[in-house]
Structures are given as structure tokens and as C-alpha cells.
Amino acid sequence: MKLDEKVVEILSHVLKVPQGEFSMESSPYTVESWDSLNQIKLIMALEEEYGVRFSDSQIQNITDVKSILQALR
Amino acid sequence: MSDLTLLEIQKAMEEANTKEYPYLRVSVLRNITVEPMESFAQYLAHSLGFRIQIQYGNYDNIIQEALSGGEGLLDQDLDFVQVFFNLEVFSRRLIREFSGMSGVEIEGESDRVKEYVSGTLEGIRRHTDAIILWNGLECPDYPAFGIADYRQENSQLDIVTELNRSIRQILGGHDGAYFVDLNMCKARVGIKSFYDERYQHIAKNPYTREGMEEIAKENFKYVRSLKGKSKKCLILDCDNTLWGGIVGEDGLGGIRLDSEEYPGSAYYKFQQVILNLFDCGILLALCSKNNEQDVWEVFKEHRDMVLREEHIVASQINWNDKASNIVKIAEELDLPLDSMVYVDDSPFEVQLIREILPDVHVLHLPDSEPSSYANILSALGLFDTISLSREDMTRSKMYQQESNRKKEKKEFSDLESFLKSLKMTLEIRNAREFEIPRIAQLTQKTNQFNLTSRRYSEANIKSMLGSQKFQVLHARLIDKFGDSGIIGVCIMLCDEDVATIDTYLLSCRVLGRQVEETFLTKCIGHVKDFDIKKIVGEYIPTRKNVQVENFYSNFGFKINDDRGECRRYELKLPGNISNSDDYFMSIDMSIEADGME
């Protein structure tokens, strides 16, 4: 799996961090602004941009960039 | 905004240059998560010419922060306090365990809600006079007793509705506190698209993106109104807008307009929505490429025309370009372009006006779907104002009188004899309690003849009336064509022997009739009696009040300080003040002297 441009763009706008700073392993532990509040904004933006609806458990499992890509597959 | 995604809104806001916009300071007290709403708020604030600064109180700390002030959360610099008080969070029992509650328990919980609301409001008012927007309680979507709810001694829906009524009543006891109806937002969006249980359980954020957008929009209708940004005039295209078809080609009998039958019924309903705006004081004008007599023939002869000639205050029906025509209408009515809304079905005209006159709000009506017209106009709330005054309800009529006055003006060769023929009476008085809404409204809405453009809420004016230092005077003009109502406000701050004119404004309807100088002369004459030795006038330039730039110097004031945002002028008393009483048939001063020390 490789980084998806669109996902990085969304992450960057919601978390207010430059696009280049994201990797597959970026997570709430490595990005300071990725708190629970921004997590919900992130979910909303991802759902809207991709026209999908995550299940409860998918939302729970979104813990880093890699898991976002998995949820979107 | 609905056609933009959250991401697009965010991008647009990051790129927007709002540096020159004034701040709109908002604090949010809440027991739910509302932060994701901020993008919408930013966007809406930007569309009104503000940059928003939002501070959030801690989760579920509404009354605590209201009472303590919340460490800088509530202070006098604030413009708005938004309260999100979710009933399900506050009282799970009333929402989720209702079926197990006794009457006494229900009453106890209801009282607890009311006490919390009163306590919060009193708390907020100890710290700030900012406008309070209280987002009301949401009715349960699936009441505990289901279809039998209304047959119970205590219906859950009734209880919540009753609580909302109580909240409105409690809000009514405070100045500048308003109720925002979330049930209306919910109904418009639809329950299924309004809530998202996943967000609620995971982040205590009950609403979907659509839900939050609608709530933000509803709150901003109040912001628009209270910040003086409500639209005042609706300019209408005719063919395929007010009726289906083209009158010049289809003829009076061929156009589609009918009280019952589609498609004419869609245009008929659209006209009814417009007439409703007229009744609320919105000015209606026509801008149409047509032969003028064809259009007026429809207005006069068509049996299903809802709008009549008497509803139209200005018109430009010709073959000139629409941008110049709209400018002409604005000049005739003496209104700024940003107070106008233009509707048209032609994408070309819509694009043209948007590009040439970006200040005009343009609505595009899709001619393939006339049934959508009525809602397109209603949904935006562009004309909503929070306090409809007597002046609003009769404004259109007053403009009509004004156009009669203008016609008469043509028959006189000199201004003086014209003005005298109007038999004007100027009435100047201290503001009284019941006039507070109109005075506050004038400070909020007047942009052109307004020396300082200071915006005041009803609460602000009320506290001035209670203060010994402030003199709040207003002017009303009556002439042979009718009563213009309250059209001028002068607020003076008297400190020892100096009186500073904090606010001096006149409604643009009455400009050019010697009220400008006469009203001020009388106000100065009034404070002269209180050992005032010096009058200080202030001018704060804005984009719209250039016409009063030299008002004080022309009046005889000497400039004292022209640096900074506020230019200060001085007038030593007794100065040499010109007398323009002659123009008036009478000047009625009934000012109470005990307003001052």
C-alpha cells in the first residue's frame, strides 16, 4: 500500500500540518494536532470526499494513516 | 455552500484574504461537541464581511462558565454567545427514561431545566452584554409512548415543547437574548440526515455535516440581522421569473401564470412569497428587458398577478444592460448595492451582474424548474430581521410617498420653496422605552449618513437610557405626504462641560431636506442648557459613509485630531450655528430636562 495523495490532502487540511510530513505510520501519537476532536472532523471529511460511510468498528479502527487506507479499500 | 464539501470550504477559507475584515468574536457554551461546525461559521462570517474568532467553553460546563465568566470566555468585547444546551445530555431521564417517570418527577426535571437556563442567562449577563443565541431543545423523534404519546397525561412531545416555550419566555426577560429553533433546522434537513448516532457515541457530536450546516445558517440569520447586513430590496426580472414565457412574444394571454394549474401555479406561489416580503417591509423593484407597456399591462390586466403596480417602488424596463439598470435603481432608492438581491432565470444576466456588481446578491432561478423558485428565495433568509418594527411594516409605503415627493420636486425651480411646500414637521424627543428597538435597529442598519457607524443592541441603548451621562435623542419627520417615523438618532455623552457626539445618523430616506443640520443644531441647543462649553464630534470613515466626511467641518466644527481611525472635531459654545428652522412648518421639541444632572 502506498500513500494516497487525496488522503494526505485531507489530513493536511484538517490537522493543519504540511502534506510532506505524513507517512503511513502517522498517527495521533506522532501528530500533535490529531486529537479526538480532529479525529471526528477527519472522519467526516473522509466520508464526504469518498462518498462512503464507515461502520462503528471501522471508525474505532482508524488509528493511523495506514488504517485509513485500509478502511477506504 | 451546500454544494461545497467540508474540505473545499476549508480550502476556500485558507485562501480567503480576510485581513481587513473586522472580527466577529463568539464564545460557545455547550454540553455537546460542536467544533466541526466552525468551518461553516467561518464561511458564513466571511460572506458577511467578518472574520470569526470562536472560543469554546469546556464540555458540559455551561452554567459553571456562565457564572464564573470562564477565564476570558465571557467579556465585554464579545459579539455573540452561542449556547448549545442538549436536553438528552442534560436530562437523560426526560428523553430516554421518560416512560418510567411519575408526574412529580417530570415536573421536578422540568424545573431543573428552567432553573439551569435562568441561572445561565443571569450568569452570562453579569459578564457581557453580547447577543445571546440560545439553541432550543430538540423534540424526541420517537417519543417513549409511540403513537399513544398524545393520549398520556404527560406527553413527552408536549413536555419538551412546553420547555421550549418556557425558555423563550426566560430569554424574553433579558435584552439581546434570542431563541434559535433547532426543530426547524431538523425538519428542513430531515431527521435521518440531521443526526449521526456514530458521531454522537464516539465524539458526543450529534449532528451530520448537513445538520451542522443548517444550524450554522440558522444562527447566522441572527448575525446577519443584528449586524445590519439584512437585505432591503429585491430586484426582479419578469419573463420566466414572475411568469412563465416571454410577454413580448407570448402576449398577455400566452404567458404561464395561474393560481391553480401548473406550470403557472409555480410562478403564482413565487409571487406570493415575494408579496410576503413586501409586507415585511422589503422594497420590490423590476429590472427587465422588455417593452415597458407590455410589462405594466400584465401587472394591470392579468387576473392571476399577485404583485400589483403599487407593490413596485422602482423599475427599469428597457433594453439597456441590466448592470446599469440595477445601479440606477440603487440610486433612485438611495440604497447601497450590498443591500440588494437580484433574481433572474438567465445564466448570462446572473453571471454579468455577479461580475460587474459583486456587491449585489444574485440568485439564479433554473427556468426548467419553476416549482423550485419559492423555496430558493425562502431558504436563504436574506431578508430576515429579528425585530420587525412599525417602520419596517410600512417602509414600502413610505418609499412610495418618497417617490411622490420626488415627482413634486420637479415642479419647483428652487429647493427652498419645494421644501417649504412639504409642510415638514420635525419632532425631536428623548428616546423612550418602547422606541428602543427602532433606535437600536437604526444604529445597526444605517450605513451612509452615519458619522461613527457604532452598532448598538437594544440592551446597549437601554443601559444608556438608564445612565445619567447619555442623552439619547431621536427625530421624526412628518410632512404632507405622510409620516416617515423615526429617522434620526443622536447620542451624546456628557462629561462635565464636554458633550461628545457618540452617534449621529439619519435614515437615507430623508436626506437633502435640511434635517441633517437642523436636528444637530437642536441637539446642541438642548445640551447647551446644561453648562456644556464644548461639543466634540467624531467621524469614523467606512466604505460607505464618505458623504458625511466633511459634515462637521461644514457645520462649523474645527478639526482637532485627524490621525487614526477616528477623526475628532470640536465646537466651542456658544458657537456660530446656522439656522435652518425656516424650512420647517414646525419643530416640536419635547425633551425632558431631567435626563441630566
Overview of the molecule:
The complex is a heterodimer of chains A (73) and B (597). Chain A has 73 residues and is mostly helical. Chain A is globular. Helix content of chain B is 40%, strand content 19%. Chain B is built from 24 helices and 18 strands. In chain B, helix 8 crosses helix 11 and helix 13 runs parallel beside helix 17. The longest helix of chain B has 25 residues. Classes of the chains: A mainly alpha (73), B alpha/beta (597). At the A-B interface, helix 1, helix 2 and helix 3 of A face helix 1 and helix 10 of B.
Task: Tell me the span between the first and last alpha carbons of chain A.
Answer: 10 Å
The parts of chain A where pLDDT drops under 50 for at least 5 residues are none
Percentage of residues in strands of chain A: under 5%
Q: What is the tally of helical segments of chain B? A: 24
Structural category of chain B: alpha/beta
What is the average of the pLDDT values of chain A? 92
List the chains of the largest interface with their residue counts: A-B, 18 and 16 residues
Question: Based on CA inertia axes, which overall geometry of chain A fits?
Answer: globular
The amount of helix of chain B comes to 40-55%
State the helical fraction of chain A. 40-55%
